[in-house]
Here is the input.
Amino acid sequence: MAFLQVNYYSKILGMDRMMNVILPELSDHNPDWRNETLKDIPVLYLLHGMSGDQAIWQRRTSIERLIRQTPIAIVMPSTDLAWYTNTKYGMAYFDALSIELPQKVAELFPQISTKRDKNFVAGLSMGGYGAFKMAFNGDQFSYAASLSGALMGDPNFPERETWQNAAYWQGIFGDLNDFIGSENDVIALAQKQAATKQQLPQLYAWIGEQDYLYQMNQNTIPKIRDLGYNVTYETSPGEHEWYYWDKQIERVLEWLPINYQQEKRLS
Here is the structure.
């Protein structure tokens, strides 16, 4: 696999941005691949959480090793601390990542598929929220996975009472009293998409039972499922930690409709 650090210009944000990309290539690890294998490659957009950036999945997990023998591209962008949202302070991060970024990937990497059934998105914590949000808007992604996702959409989610730094949150989402039912509420977004009768994305969610976002997921996932979405929802002992996300990203790869090959031992 090739690992690329890509600097590019975002017209929407008006500034240079960076994405990290893992790209399949012919090597001793996959000598049976043919040229056709490396055309129309599936892609997984992998989103970071609040304390991360475009490099964090590469640094904290085994993602590159896990896909070494699987022809899939991984695109890892950054949203800074903007919650994959068109912020109230005028920076359209959501549009930059959900619309502009796939166009930039298609321009720079023509071997990566633009087909909906080969475009997937996943993320952790803030990125889990971002993954579902992207999947509920438009028809870019056919599969979306949330690991320990901050799936905000229930008016009674207890974490809301502990939010600190009101100015920061209002800069992202606006008046927090208007959050429910807004363009940033994942349940409202799912309702809007389901009402269009278009093909709905397949969803996966995992949350650790000791995670502070556990109750949020317990409240939100059934509401999304009731709208007609096919949701694979799993829980197990675990906290809001990379130890668990490193394990769960392999579960996501197994769930995706790709020919996932576990790493073989090579001499």
User: Anything to note?
Assistant: Residues 133 and 186 are 6 Å apart (CA to CA).
